[in-house]
Write a structure and sequence with these properties.
about 280 residues; alpha+beta; 6-stranded antiparallel sheet; globular; binds pyridoxal-5'-phosphate; D-alanine-2-oxoglutarate aminotransferase activity; Aminotrans_IV; EC 2.6.1.21
Length: about 280
């Protein structure tokens, strides 16, 4: 696999970064994952805009326009029909000190991965989830590589035979380990509002826009675990998940126990959009 590391194009087994890199030592790094459909990036502009916000929140100074050139060259060199781009920027390498050392050269790593034989069975038949207390920090809108709680939650879900974990702060449902969450009740879509408790998902926004086009009402307002369990439909959205229905949570059946018609309409509209690229 071809990897871009700080201006060099290398094979993945030749690519290295310093053990002092602050991404490695402090999770002092941000990232993006961008989907590739039909050899083209899906909303690269929106991902780069979010990356700009993440970089600015951490006060890492990188010219995002030059990153866009890297992303485009990567896809050019590594022609991929269906796949994803991973792009990570850390503050750079420095002696291990707390505080924010100035004048570092950020570490930029990017690669493209093909997705052949992608398993879409969850999108077709629906997944099972558990609830997991959201003990992450209060800056979940920044897409940092500090994903340990997400990994613990997903690991717990898998160990219980579920597919994912749904985070909640007290009774309020926030999002899932790598996706945003929507419920459908009486024909209206509900999802947690943007802010510091969730990642402002690109797919979440696309789904809201598609819902508007389909005249499906959307309310960006918090809902409880109880409301989730009483929903007619439930689905997760994300770059990799796209729109994935969930039909069981904590062993309780959601709606009719199968992907519902609002979810199906949105899935169809989403796949039309990705096919039209
Ligand atoms: C915690 C979290 N929420 C939501 C999302 C979905 O965001 P997007 O649709 O931009 O992939 C992700 C994606 O990685 C995520 O990690």
């Amino acid at each position: 696999m071809l990897v871009y590391v700080n201006g060099q194009w290398l094979n993945d087994n030749e690519a290295t970064i310093s053990i002092l890199d602050r991404g490695f030592v402090f999770a002092d790094a941000v990232y993006e994952v961008v989907r590739i459909y039909n050899g083209r990036y899906f909303y690269l502009d929106r991902h780069l805009q979010r990356l700009k916000q993440s970089l600015s929140a951490l006060r890492i100074d990188v010219d995002v326009d030059s990153l866009e050139i890297v992303c485009r060259e990567l896809l050019e060199r590594n022609k991929t029909d269906q796949g994803s781009l991973y792009l990570q920027i850390s503050r750079g390498a420095a002696q291990r000190v707390h505080g924010l050392p100035q004048g570092l050269t950020p570490t930029v790593v990017a690669y493209v991965k093909g997705l052949s034989n992608l398993d879409t069975s969850l999108q077709e038949s629906g997944g099972k989830a558990i609830f997991y207390e959201d003990t992450r920090w209060f800056m979940c809108n920044i897409k940092t590589v500090g994903l340990l709680i997400n990994c613990l939650a997903k690991g717990e879900a898998l160990s219980q035979g579920a597919d994912d974990a749904i985070f909640h702060r007290g009774e309020i449902v926030t999002e899932a380990t790598s996706s945003n969450i929507f419920i459908v009740k009486n024909g209206t879509l509900y999802t947690h509002p943007n802010g510091n408790l969730i990642l402002p998902g690109i797919t979440r926004q696309v789904v809201i826009e598609l819902a508007h086009e389909l005249q499906i009402p959307v309310e960006e307002k918090p809902f409880t675990r109880e409301e989730l369990l009483a929903a007619d439909e439930l689905f997760l959205t994300g770059t990799m998940a796209e729109i994935t229905p969930y039909v069981k949570v904590e062993g309780r059946t959601i709606g009719e126990g199968k992907p519902g018609c609002v979810t199906r309409r949105l899935q169809d509209a989403f796949s039309q959009l990705t096919r039209s690229l």
